[in-house]
């Protein structure tokens, strides 16, 4: 089943022509953005120099950190009154990254999600429970709109309250579920403890964090769903950028909407199909916030073989990150954000350690900080208050809860050279 | 733009009553033929669709209550084929099971979003605006409802959701928000936070309008907000049973317009059920004329208000209701979320170490509602060590949050330390002053 | 003359993990400190060790040198009759006097019991307690 068969199966010359046309339009659109105007000037190129798709390598990369300089609306290519929606995603310091959408952007994004859901067999009449965080995070509203577009009944269940999630699956006869794979594992275990019958579930869409084929097998056997990997990134709209088809062997990225390159993260050189490297994406249908050669930081490769489903070239499942970004319960966290928060709290030192564990399939982040000597009053209650204050400040910036442990001054490791402050003890 | 849907919003009353009658007649006829629940209720009351000859005949129809929704959980009230349902929302119930609301595409587009688009325009919000929605998203109707309404009128919508007040102020500043939708107490809290951050709402932000609802508030609060921040605060009304937040006051700031083609409003005497005249206070009762998935006929909302007399200078002909002045039942509103004491009891008893002896104390800590639930431990539940007790407290707080969708503090009390009641228990001490 | 009844207690920050208490005890030992009374309050992942010792300044110095985080806290010691109801007599009277005990711990000698109490305003509390007929134990009995 296709949602938009022509676009989904577009190949060869037709695809290249469309991509080039859209790339040129996108480049034109970027010239409304100061950053890109400057970039072209500094690189000594003009939009007219991009005559073929291969010419794209003349354009420098855009990095996550570049977006920081544009906060909040520096990357906006349309007047504000054309913006219909704003989302934010984790930034690398205290400020988030802002992403904006025109009406057309929202429609384009929704279409990609509708393609994905149709591709895995979700259709009108399905009851779709979206256990993703709504609000500023794109996973909630994005997935919601896609499922609504194909005519599902959407249960916007949001995150947390696992027992209630399970009751709703039962009470509404939910057939399709979207959440992070680790939350799906957690939900599976709680359902097993409750002896809950979740046999109405048929399809699971799991994304926002890396997961393995072992987890897939586990979810398929125990939750009784066919489990599909979903990939997206707020800068590229949100979820829906790439998605597995029913072959469950790699993710289809929508080539009419995204121009894909795989590069060596060290040298920036373009790699061939079958070679692992960093995914670099140029979105081709973004109006409000066009981006050129955006470095996603995700490691994957282009697969060589055609897919029997008839859609275009696939990406392999993701192998990790080229930077130190962490994904905690589906939310991206940069260690630099943590450092930024702690620097603004005078009661603690600037040394810290981050430990990540998976407890009952849920990620737990523990941050050890050294308290400053002068802050100790001798009272337990004051320590608890300090702990709460740090937790609150971290939650405000990271948008997720972290446990905080107070340590004596001087007790955390000091680093010479590159600090290794993150100890990830999860097994995926 | 003065009106979103001028013809309907300014339709003369006689013409509107005809339209209302047609809608009601259609609705009742459909339900009588197709819905066991509604036809059963009508038969019990001895009324047939033919008995409805004008809109005033609505009083012949039986009332619906919150318990009808609970007793028919989750979908026995749904009057359309399952495939036509495109959304479920869930709100707090009176016991363990929540109240479920189902929507068709028509319910979302032609009723809910239409009502909100009209309301937002009547508050002066349009394409040029940046609307920061700080109601909860997800199952709660506030977030998604205002979101769709805002997108409909072409505003830039920021789905900020609840919490993280400092970040909310930063967003408002950085993203140039011109309007904020949230609960009144949360807005006042935000103004405090802004002040602490050294942010002058007048000079440092462009926020000029607020859409406040989900909990009772007063004209004094409206005045306070304006004086402190220059923000004009509008009142919004709606409960998830009728769709979600829907109706607001207009630029006159005097009473909430209830779109007459969408809903028929009555004020009744809560004891006798008799309809009261404009100006008389009683229980708000609403018939939603355009609802497909779960129709609501003479639904007793439980809020106390009155219909305002006279016409509104804004030109809208729809009836206006006065500010809500209380409840006919023991429902509490905590930070915009409805909480029934029976639901608190139900949740507490999920913990084997707790008893059903509890008290609820509600206060306003600073600006925000604080709910403290004191509950007696079972005699054999005591453990040595602070951590064991803290753990029990944490678990109890979590079960409450899961059941009520709002956080409460729990204080564990020794056995036999809380009051016992003969007859009607008075477990709620509400210390809030508006 | 309230000061003579105000006892210097050490409050030492400690992580809640194996061997931590032994390390603290070793520092007392090495500094030649005699512990008069001792109590641990625990919270999530940390605790506060509260100790009344003969030479608080020496002990403070020894811990500070080892980079411990610690503070002095003023507490009072009230004598209790070593009979059933002895505690009740003391805390009942303190309650009547409007003195709120933030925390307390006790010990017993062969002659009497003692209640160590942290109160909000020790100077004021001493005056009230002296008038009430309860017996305060002087600081010199603890801190030499």
Q: What would your notes on this structure say?
A:
- The complex is a heterotrimer of chains A (428), B (434) and C (144).
- Chain A has helices spanning 5-8, 12-30, 34-43, 64-69, 103-119, 138-149, 162-172, 181-194, 213-223, 335-343, 380-398, and strands at 83-89, 97-102, 127-130, 153-155, 176-179, 203-207, 226-233, 238-244, 251-253, 258-263, 277-283, 294-300, 314-315, 320-321, 326-328, 331-333, 348-359, 362-371, 403-407, 422-424.
- Chain A has 428 residues and is an alpha/beta fold.
- Chain A has two domains: 1-322, 3-Layer(aba) Sandwich (Rossmann fold), CATH 3.40.50.12780; 331-424, GMP Synthetase, Chain A, domain 3, CATH 3.30.300.
- In chain A, the strands form five sheets. In chain A, strands 4-3-5-6-7-8-9-13 form an eight-stranded mixed beta sheet, sandwiched between helices. In chain A, strands 10-11-12-14 form a four-stranded antiparallel beta sheet.
- The mean pLDDT of chain A is 94.
- The two termini of chain B are 34 Å apart.
- Helix content of chain B is 31%, strand content 22%.
- By secondary structure, chain B is α/β, with parallel strands linked by helices.
- In chain B, helix 12 (386-404) links the parallel strand 17 and strand 18 (409-413).
- In chain B, the strands form six sheets. In chain B, strands 4-3-5-6-7-8 form a six-stranded mixed beta sheet.
- Chain C has two domains: 2-73, VC0802-like; 74-141, VC0802-like, CATH 3.30.2130.10.
- Chain C is 30% helix and 35% strand.
- Chain C has helices at 20-30, 56-65, 86-96, 122-132, and strands at residues 7-15, 35-42, 46-53, 70-80, 101-108, 113-119.
- Chain C has a six-stranded antiparallel beta sheet.
- In chain C, strand 2 and strand 3 form a beta hairpin.
- Chain C is globular and about 45 Å long.
- Chains in contact: A-B, A-C, B-C.
- The interface between A and B is large, with 44 and 42 residues.
């Amino acid at each position: 089943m296709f949602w938009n068969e022509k676009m989904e199966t577009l190949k060869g010359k037709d695809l290249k022509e469309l991509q080039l046309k859209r790339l040129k339009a996108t480049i034109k659109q970027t010239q409304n953005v100061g950053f890109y105007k400057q970039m072209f000037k500094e690189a000594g190129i003009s939009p007219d120099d991009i005559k073929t798709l291969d010419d794209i390598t003349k354009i420098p990369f855009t990095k996550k950190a570049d977006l920081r300089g544009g906060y909040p609306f520096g990357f906006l290519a349309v007047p504000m009154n054309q913006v219909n929606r704003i989302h934010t995603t984790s930034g690398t310091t205290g400020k988030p990254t802002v992403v904006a959408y025109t009406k057309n952007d929202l429609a384009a994004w929704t279409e990609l999600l509708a393609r994905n859901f149709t591709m895995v067999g979700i259709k009108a009449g399905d009851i779709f429970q979206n256990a993703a965080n709504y609000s500023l995070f794109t996973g909630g509203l994005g997935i919601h709109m896609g499922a609504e577009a194909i005519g599902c009944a959407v249960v916007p269940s949001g995150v947390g309250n696992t027992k209630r999630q399970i009751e709703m699956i039962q009470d509404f006869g939910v057939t399709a579920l979207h959440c992070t794979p680790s939350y799906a594992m957690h939900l599976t275990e709680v359902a097993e403890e409750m002896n809950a019958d979740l046999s109405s579930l048929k399809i699971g869409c799991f994304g926002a964090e890396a997961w393995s084929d072992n987890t897939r097998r586990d979810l398929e056997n125990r939750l009784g769903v066919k489990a599909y990997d979903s990939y997206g990134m707020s800068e590229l709209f949100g979820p829906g950028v790439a998605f597995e088809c029913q072959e469950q062997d790699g993710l289809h990225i929508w080539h009419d909407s995204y121009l894909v390159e795989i590069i060596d993260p060290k040298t920036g050189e373009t790699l061939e199909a079958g070679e692992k490297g960093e995914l670099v994406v140029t979105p081709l249908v973004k109006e409000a916030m066009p981006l050129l050669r955006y470095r996603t930081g995700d490691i994957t490769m282009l697969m060589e073989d055609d897919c029997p489903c008839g859609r275009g070239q696939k990406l392999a499942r993701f192998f990790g990150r080229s930077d130190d970004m962490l994904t905690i319960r589906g939310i991206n966290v940069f260690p630099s954000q943590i450092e930024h928060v702690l620097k603004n709290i005078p009661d603690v030192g600037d040394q810290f350690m981050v430990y990540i564990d998976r407890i009952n399939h849920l990620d737990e982040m523990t941050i050890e900080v050294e308290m400053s000597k002068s802050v100790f009053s001798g009272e337990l209650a004051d320590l608890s208050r300090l702990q709460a204050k740090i937790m609150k400040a971290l939650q405000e910036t990271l948008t997720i809860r972290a446990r905080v442990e107070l340590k004596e001054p001087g007790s955390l490791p000091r680093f010479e050279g590159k600090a290794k402050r993150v100890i990830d003890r999860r097994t995926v | 733009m003065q009106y979103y849907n001028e013809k309907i919003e300014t339709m003369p009353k006689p013409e509107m009553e005809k339209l209302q009658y047609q809608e009601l007649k259609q609705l009742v006829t459909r339900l009588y033929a197709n819905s066991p629940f509604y036809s059963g209720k009508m038969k019990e009351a001895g009324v047939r669709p033919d008995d409805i000859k004008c809109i005033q005949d609505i009083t012949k129809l039986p009332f619906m209550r919150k318990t009808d929704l609970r007793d028919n959980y989750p979908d026995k009230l749904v009057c359309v084929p399952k495939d036509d349902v495109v959304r479920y929302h869930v709100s707090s119930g009176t016991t363990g099971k929540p109240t479920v609301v189902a929507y068709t595409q028509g319910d979302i587009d032609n009723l809910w979003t239409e009502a909100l688009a009209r309301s937002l325009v009547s508050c002066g919000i349009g394409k040029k605006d940046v609307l920061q929605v700080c109601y909860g998203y997800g199952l709660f109707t506030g977030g998604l409802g205002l979101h769709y309404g805002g997108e409909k009128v072409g505003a830039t919508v920021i789905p900020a959701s609840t919490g993280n007040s400092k970040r909310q102020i930063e967003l408002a500043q950085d993203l140039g928000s011109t309007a904020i939708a949230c609960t009144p107490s949360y807005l006042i809290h935000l103004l405090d936070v802004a002040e602490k951050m050294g942010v002058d709402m007048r000079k440092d932000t462009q926020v000029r309008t607020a859409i406040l609802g989900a909990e009772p508030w007063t004209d004094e609060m409206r005045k306070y907000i304006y004086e402190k921040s220059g923000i004009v605060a509008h009142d919004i009304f709606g409960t998830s049973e009728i769709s979600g937040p829907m109706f607001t006051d207009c630029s006159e700031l005097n009473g909430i317009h209830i779109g007459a083609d969408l809903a028929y409003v009555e004020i009744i005497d809560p004891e006798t059920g008799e309809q009261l005249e404009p100006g008389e206070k009683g229980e708000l009762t609403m018939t939603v004329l355009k609802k497909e998935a779960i129709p609501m006929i003479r639904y007793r909302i439980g809020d106390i208000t009155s219909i305002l007399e006279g016409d509104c200078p804004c030109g809208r002909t729809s009836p206006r209701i006065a500010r809500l002045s209380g409840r006919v039942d023991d429902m509490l509103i905590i930070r915009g979320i409805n909480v029934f004491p029976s639901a608190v009891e139900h949740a507490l008893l999920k913990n084997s170490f707790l008893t059903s002896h509890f008290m609820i104390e509600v206060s306003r800590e600073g600006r925000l509602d604080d709910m403290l639930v004191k509950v007696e431990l079972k005699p054999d539940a005591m453990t040595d060590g602070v951590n064991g007790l803290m753990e029990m407290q944490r678990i109890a707080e979590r079960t409450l949050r899961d059941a009520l969708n709002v956080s409460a503090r729990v204080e564990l009390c020794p056995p036999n330390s809380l009051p016992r009641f003969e007859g009607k228990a008075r477990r709620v001490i509400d210390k809030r002053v508006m | 003359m309230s000061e003579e009844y105000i006892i210097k207690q050490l409050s030492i920050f400690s992580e809640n993990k194996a061997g931590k208490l032994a390390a603290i005890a070793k520092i007392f030992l090495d500094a030649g400190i005699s512990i008069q009374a001792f109590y641990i309050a625990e919270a999530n992942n940390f605790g506060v060790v509260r100790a009344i010792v003969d030479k608080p300044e020496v002990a403070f110095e020894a811990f500070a040198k080892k980079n411990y985080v610690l503070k002095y806290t003023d507490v009072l010691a009230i004598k209790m009759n070593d009979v059933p109801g002895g505690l009740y007599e003391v805390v009942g009277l303190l309650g009547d006097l409007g003195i709120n005990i933030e925390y307390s711990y006790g010990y017993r000698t062969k002659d009497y019991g003692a209640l160590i109490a942290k109160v909000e305003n020790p100077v004021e509390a001493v005056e009230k307690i002296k008038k009430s007929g309860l017996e305060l134990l002087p600081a010199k009995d603890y801190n030499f």
